[in-house]
Hints:
Elements lengths: L1 E3 L8 H10 L16 H8 L1 H6 L17 E4 L16 E6 L2 E5 L2
Antiparallel strand pairs: 1-2, 2-3, 3-4
Amino acid sequence: MVLALIASGLPSAIRILSSEVNRRTRSGDILGASQCIPVGAALKALTIWPAYHHYEEKNRGSIEVGKLADFVILDRNPLKIPTSELDKLQIVETIKSGKTIYAAR
């Protein structure tokens, strides 16, 4: 699964994804269960929607011909795993401006 990200760094985008879907605190409590969102919506909240809000949707936010190629490749498809495992996703490769800047061993 390829996940296009506008920016990486702290805090972890994978942790944010898990938090938006599960609303689980570090201590394990669910904070605002009624505010959990589906994985697809959480992915858009990290990619397409921020690009739109920054008027950069023509060159960022999704993977399309002609757009900037900044994205990560994950070890599993976040849309097909149990939501409780989202925080365990691992980055296999990071690509920025079309070049690999990180590859897992």
